[in-house]
Amino acid sequence: LCLEQKNMGYSIDGGFGEYATAYARYVVAVPEGMDPFDAAPLTCAGVTTYKAVKVAGTRSSDLVAVFGVGGLGHMAIQYAKIAGGRVIAVDLVDEKLELARELGAEFTVNAAKEDVVEVIQKLGGADQAISTAVSPKAFEQAYRSLRRGGTLVFVGLPKDNYIQLPIFETVLNGITVVGSIVGTRVDLREVFDLHAAGLTKVIRETRELETINESMEDALAGNVPARIVFELLVASRSGAPLEGAFHLPLRV
User: Fold this and answer.
1) Which residues of the chain are modeled with pLDDT < 70?
2) I need a labelling partner for 39 at 20 to 30 A (CA). Which of 29, 170, 187, 223 fits?
3) What is the pLDDT of residues 138-168, one digit of tens each?
C-alpha cells in the first residue's frame, strides 16, 4: 500500500526479457527443489489469491464462492480449501468448472446456464465471495450471493471500472466489501511453503518467449486454461550462450 511503490513493467523497466533488476530486500528465494516454472505464476496469481483468502477471513466450514476459474481463480479455490472452506466455483466455461472440481471445488455453477445468485442462496448464501473475474456483472452477482454478514473481496480488475451496490442492503445485512491487492513478502514465502509441501497445484502452459504476442492475445481472449509461462535461454553479456545454459520462466 506504499504510495511510493515501484512496479516492474509499470514505473520501472522489466518483464519479458532475459534479465531484470529488483530490490534485494523484496526478493523471495524459491525453495530448493521447487520447479521454477511453478514458482513464476505463484509470485503473482498465487500470492494474490492467497492474500485474498486471508482478507476474506475464511474459516473452517465457511462457504466460499470463487467467481472466475482462470489464472487467479484456480489458485483461490485451493487456498480457500486449505483454509477449511467449502468452495463453490463460478465460470462461463464448462471445462474450467471441471478443472475447479479437480482442484477441490465442492459445487460449480455455469453462469451462462444457471442463475448464480439463486443457486448459491439455496445453499445458504456465501460467507465470502472472491471475485477474480473481469466482468462487473460477476462482481454484482458475487455481492448478491452473500449471506447476512458476508464479505465480498474485490481481486480482479475489469476494464469497465464500476459496479452498482445497494446501500440499504449493505447496511441492513452487515455486508463487508474489501479490496485485496497482491501480497507481502511473508505471504509469498507462505505460498512457496504450501506448494513445496505439495498442497497446491499450478495449472500452466509453457511456451517460448517468441510467442509473446500470440500468447497475449490468447490470454486476453480467455483461450488459456490458467497461466502461460515463457521459457527463455539465458545468454552471456556477449550474446553467446552460456556453458551449461539454463532456462528462466516468465509468466502471463
Assistant:
1) 233-252
2) 223
3) 999 999 999 999 999 999 999 999 999 999 9
pTM passes above 0.85:
yes
Position 155, amino acid: V
Written in H, E and C, the secondary structure of the chain is CCCCCCCECCCECCCCCCCCCCCHHHCCCCCCCCCHHHHHHHHHHHHHHHHHHHHHCCCCCCEEEEECCCCCHHHHHHHHHHCCCEEEEEECCHHHHHHHHHCCCCEEEECCCCCHHHHHHHCCCEEEEEECCCCHHHHHHHHHCEEEEEEEEECCCCCCCCCCCCHHHHHHCCCEEEECCCCCHHHHHHHHHHHHCCCCCCCEEEEEHHHHHHHHHHHHCCCCCCEEEEEEECECCCCCECCCCCEEEEEC
